[in-house]
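Example A, followed by Example B.
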Amino acid sequence: MLPEPNRLHRARDFSVAVRRGRRMGRSDLVVHAVVRDEQDIASTVRGPRFGLIVSKAVGPAVTRHRVARRLRHICTDVIGELPETTDVVIRALPGAATSSSADLSVQLRSGLKKLGLLEAPKGPPS
């Protein structure tokens, strides 16, 4: 489960990330990310925050909730790798309904790398 301080709740936060942030499209996801300004950071906010947009185009309610649960789980794995002042909004596309969790994870990480928020994976130790 995604910790409470790492969630986007307000519509204003979503719109700032989508409108002012940079965007990277993948086959089943669109990743929007913005680095918060110092004045936008509430004193209680620690770490990156994530928001999900899973529309009815993805499928019926059961499918949308399954996709959202998968994405929240993937976000918990990425929290420690992102800068603390980052807001990320993930918009699921209809193909996300049939994608595996591993595929969604690869697409999210790929989008964040292209946006310059994640470092390239390090190879095995020599």
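Example B, a separate protein, is given below in the same form.
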Amino acid sequence: MSSFPDDVEAYYAQLAERRGWSPETMAAIRSTVELIRDLDRGTAPRTYGALADDEGTDWLYEAVWHEREWVVVRQLGAAEDGTLTRYWWQRLEDDEGMLTDQALDRDEWGLRPLSREDFYTAWDDPGWSLTA
């Protein structure tokens, strides 16, 4: 298996210990992390979308075309109180949530279009907001 940066290895090791993951579960998680990382770094077509949920959190998604569906590789949540959640291969999940494992469906999710530039402005700048 390929290696991850030390901080990523440590994060997943701590998560596995806290959750009591079996070696088989850890192997499956690692495989998923590798896939999302490879898709994130790849050159396949991408799409971006955004929505504001009923609690006032802005959700932004970056997805990559893979095996006839849009696979989400980055997901950003920006709550009204300033709380940010970022999910991607370096942190597929935490105690609050996880990177969606559902194929991105613009119509079903009610996403509005978002440019790559706007997505990465938000990803890099925690002060950005859809609703501001």
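On Example B: The chain has a mean pLDDT of 91.
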